[in-house]
Specification:
- With 569 residues, the protein is α+β, with helices and mostly antiparallel strands.
- Among the domains are: 95 residues, 2-Layer Sandwich (N Utilization Substance Protein A, Chain:P, domain 4); 66 residues, OB fold (Dihydrolipoamide Acetyltransferase, E2P) (Beta Barrel), CATH 2.40.50.140; 85 residues, DNA polymerase, domain 1 (Orthogonal Bundle).
- The protein is 41% helix and 16% strand.
- It contains 21 helices and 14 strands.
- The strands form 4 sheets. It has a 5-stranded mixed beta barrel. Strands 1-2-3 form a 3-stranded antiparallel beta sheet.
- A hairpin with a 4-residue loop joins strand 12 and strand 13.
- The longest helix is centred in the C-terminal third of the chain and has 34 residues.
């Protein structure tokens, strides 16, 4: 019996990961408590268990007692309850300590059940909780499915130890890279920064401490074998691997790939980067619903503003006009402001006079006048922009085309009907939704024909035409600060119908049926409609300026949830 007791104790301690000495001490205290209940609560009861032989000796006030004779059924039941309670407490403490040490690591579990959109996952000794907010959007799990999850947090609640799991946290990507890329696990390749919109796209900046190891190539693998495993684990989420560079300008250029950047102006006072891209590269730089530029901003730590050359020159002309209107200002001041990264009157108003005095060595009074003039012009431009938006909204509400599209209605029907969206002018071509091929390149979508997606690294070999002052390097921290630099306010614009009628439709013949009369009337009102196989998509023009931007929405796109949490230490 004594040896059987020892085997039972060893089995319980092994299965529940409990310290054996602690369990034996709890067992002795439970039996001593039962003896006191059988005799006197004030009695000095002592119980000892020999760890080698398993023999139990008990004393009451120094006198030995026979446990089998002294302990009745009630006392034995009391000892049993105490032992069970102490065992559960020990097991609870053990689970909390174990999973606290494993916080931030990936574990594999089995889906047990679903509770109102959340999943309970069996982790072996205990169960974890995968809330809806920590799931990848659009991803579903079945009961009995084995999944990889990140241990995000461990909470000691009164009733249970609650283990919070996640598949949408950015650190989940880091741990997957450590599993799939040995160089990352060995710290030869370092993940310098990461920005993620779970379920849609992720940008990762990598660098290598070994000049013989190519960071981007090692992460991609032979024919994309390594990155493909990560993409499959994430349910097809696109991953852009960006080559890290200490120069902020080159890093921003790399992060905006595949778009080609013409010029980058950095304003250290505002933490803002003004990026100039060609008209045909604008949709690639912005990305689907602003996704590309949004992730680039989080990856680099800069507030990125995308402009076309025409818009950039317009801002510079406005800045030059306002500065020169101030008495005592010269062209050199304008050049110095542009060199500081101040490219618009809004930037100048936001910067304030202090940098102008400290860095440009201007007189305080002159700096105040320049900033004041810039503020007045910025307010004027904002009012004009709001008035234009209200007028546009009023025309749309009245069923009229916007002013920029109204010109098309004045053209002959034959000429306008032959034009297609994106070919009637440079602005329309720029603002139109990209084609399937262009959209796939800009947003990371797969081929339009539905073929399998082969992940590719967004890698760059940028020239050193951009350089930073070493003392002003703006390096993003691994704890990313989410910057709100874009807004998505997309309105539906009515389709432009280039139709003119010089005279009202003729009266229908008396001998025609009402259905035939109605068909002729529709044909007169909508010439060329029967020749279309499908309606044209409405064109949506992006608005720019002031760092707050509306981005064009591609065809058939779904809203991306922006749930990017900063990387945990």
């Amino acid at each position: 019996m004594s040896q059987d007791l020892l085997r039972i104790i060893d089995s319980i301690c092994r299965d529940k990961n409990i310290d054996r000495d602690s369990f034996v001490a709890d067992l002795e205290n439970a039996m001593a408590s039962a003896i006191r209940k059988a005799h006197d609560e004030t009695a000095d009861a002592q119980v000892q268990l020999d760890p080698l032989s398993g023999k139990i000796t008990a004393t009451v006030n120094g006198q030995p007692v026979d446990l089998q004779r002294e302990l009745g059924r009630i006392a034995a039941q009391t000892a049993k309850q105490v032992i069970i309670q102490k065992t559960r407490e020990r097991e609870r403490t053990s689970i909390f300590e174990e999973f606290t040490e494993r916080r931030g690591t990936i574990v594999t579990g089995t889906v047990v059940r679903e509770e109102r959109g959340s999943f309970i996952v069996n982790l072996g000794r205990t169960e974890g909780f995968l809330p809806r907010s920590e799931q990848i959007p659009g991803e579903t799990h079945q009961v009995g499915e084995r999944i990889r999850v990140l241990i995000l947090d461990v909470r000691d609640q009164p009733n249970q130890i609650k283990i919070i799991l996640s598949r949408s946290h950015p650190e989940f990507i880091v741990r997957l890279f450590e599993l799939e890329v040995p160089e990352v696990a060995e710290r030869i390749i370092e993940l310098k920064a990461l920005a993620r919109e779970a379920g849609y796209r992720t940008k990762v900046a990598v660098s290598s401490i070994d000049s013989k190891v190519d960071a981007v190539g090692a992460c991609v693998g032979v024919r994309g074998s390594r990155i493909k495993n990560i993409v499959e684990e994430l349910g097809g989420e696109k991953i852009d691997i960006v080559r890290w560079n200490e120069s902020s300008q080159i890093l921003i250029q790399n992060s905006l790939k595949p778009a080609e950047v013409q010029e980058i102006a950095l304003c250290f006072e505002l933490g803002k980067a003004t990026v100039v891209v060609a008209e045909d590269q604008l949709s690639l730089a912005i990305g689907k619903r602003g996704q590309n530029v949004r992730l680039a901003a989080r990856l680099t730590g800069w507030d990125v503003d995308i402009l076309t050359p025409a818009e950039y020159n317009k801002h510079l002309e406005s800045l030059e006009r306002v500065v020169k209107s101030v008495e005592g200002a010269t062209d050199m001041i304008v050049d110095q402001l542009v060199a500081m990264g101040v490219v618009s009157v809004g930037d100048l108003d936001e910067v304030g006079p202090e940098p102008l005095v400290n860095e440009l060595q201007l007189e305080p009074a002159l700096a105040e006048r320049i900033v004041e003039a810039a503020g007045e012009e910025a307010i004027k431009q904002e009012e004009e922009k709001e008035a234009a938006e209200k007028a546009r909204a009023a025309r749309i509400a009245a069923g009229l085309p916007p002013e920029e599209e109204a010109v098309a209605t004045a053209e002959p029907a034959g000429t306008a009907a032959e034009e297609t969206p994106g070919e009637s002018g440079s602005a329309a071509g720029r603002d139109a939704t990209p084609t399937a091929e262009t959209g796939a390149q800009g947003s990371g979508e797969g081929p339009a024909d539905g073929s399998a997606f082969v992940p590719e690294a967004t890698e760059t070999s940028a020239e050193d035409k951009f350089s930073d002052d070493a003392s002003k390097q703006f390096r993003p921290s691994i704890d990313f600060v989410t910057r709100t630099h874009t807004s998505t306010e997309l309105g539906d614009s009515p389709e432009v119908m280039a139709v003119t009628h010089e005279s009202p439709p003729a009266e229908p013949a008396q001998d025609e049926s009402p259905d035939e009369q109605f068909e002729e009337l529709v044909d007169d009102l909508t010439p060329g409609a029967s020749e279309r196989e499908e309606p044209l998509d409405a064109e949506i023009s992006p608005k720019r300026g002031g760092g707050q931007r509306d981005w064009p929405e591609g065809r058939g796109e779904s809203a991306a949830e922006e749930d990017v949490s900063p990387l945990g230490g």
